Amino acid sequence: MDNRQFKSFLSAYRESIQKGEKAIGADGLPIKRETDWIYFDREILEKLLKMADPRTGGIKMYLGVYTKENLDILPKDREDREKYIGMLSLALAPANRTEEGIVDVQDEGTYKNGGTLCPPFCQPPPTEI
Question: Which of 7, 12, 70, 106 could bond 65 through an S-S bridge, CB–CB 3.0 to 4.6 Å?
Fold first, then answer.
């Protein structure tokens, strides 16, 4: 995900869900059920951790929303990509704790997303809490 795509992803969240408004789904209507969980595989997490400092580094998680305009940040082979429109998700970035605070590692393409969301892909179905 490049910086332009990352900013679009964050902006969609900040302009809807963060303000308490329902995001808009692929059908143009407010979504009825928001994200329960997001799964990222170990390979992505380890790749990001390797980019961060071994002692002060970690992974920063940004909240965002998929829209028709930023849906191209999902992997091209993702099945039923349009079902993600309007859904809350995460973008991950390697980051280091510094004297200035927790700072993203600033390399092009360091922001990763594309985790599997529930809904729409809930296998197994979500647990009632």
Answer: 12
